[in-house]
Amino acid sequence: MQSVIGGDVLKIRVPQDRQYLLFVVKTEDGEVSNVRFSNTDNTPIKIDFSDLDIHIIYDPDTEITSLGEFEYVTKIDGGYEIFGDFGIIWVFCDYCSPKL
User: What is the pLDDT of residues 41-58, one digit of tens each?
Assistant: First the structure.
């Protein structure tokens, strides 16, 4: 997970069946990585938001347009807290890839 921290979020996706939450992140070394949160038994995940603010951000230093920085992920009771320029997302599931 450390390789994607500080990267730029290019996409956030949750399918209608809520099987997963996916972030596509461009890392500081230029690689594009998928960060996925799901349940190992394929049951739907639960998601809660705080201060959600998704918009395009242009960084003139890197000349990259993104949804903001993927700042950190931490384990919480029953899931994960994801924090970035887009706000705070709590996803209640038992698996993340890459692992914390």
Answer: 999 999 999 999 999 999
36: which strand partners? 22, 97
- H or E stretch covering 87: strand 87-92
Instruction: Enter the pTM of the model.
Output: 0.93
CB 9 within 8 A of CB 24: yes
Give the largest Cα separation in the chain, rounded: 43
Q: Token digits for 41?
A: 């038994």
The Cα 47–Cα 42 span in angstroms is 15
Q: Which of 74, 70, 71, 67 is nearest to 91 (CA)?
A: 74
**How far is it, in rounded angstroms, from Cα 12 to Cα 84?**
12
Residue with tokens 């399918």: 15
